[in-house]
Design goal:
113 residues, 38% helix, elongated, disulfide bond, membrane, signal, single chain, two-stranded antiparallel sheet
Length: 113
Amino acid sequence: MSSKLLTFFILLSLVAIHHIPVVTCRQWCMAMPNASDEQLQANIDYACSNGVDCTQIQPGGVCYEPNTLYSHASYVMNAYYQSHGRIEDSCRFNRSACWVMVDPSYGSCVYYT
């Protein structure tokens, strides 16, 4: 193979590799849809008393609506999971949590990863 042809293939490869999208595995910790109201409230209480800023789920906060235990618990459970190293143990919540791979953010309410 000639050096010009080899150089062409190397340059073409570099251009092609540069445009390959990088796939990342982002995950969020959410409340299980079948979790009881008591468990959801316990999860909120636990996360909010262990370093999570829960002002976003308070009246006037960007994640207050919808005003449901499921929505509020999911937001703070994810915040706890993300702020505690994204390790499996930080998304257990007494087996009332699950991981999702689709961003649950909506409107101004951003679920961080």
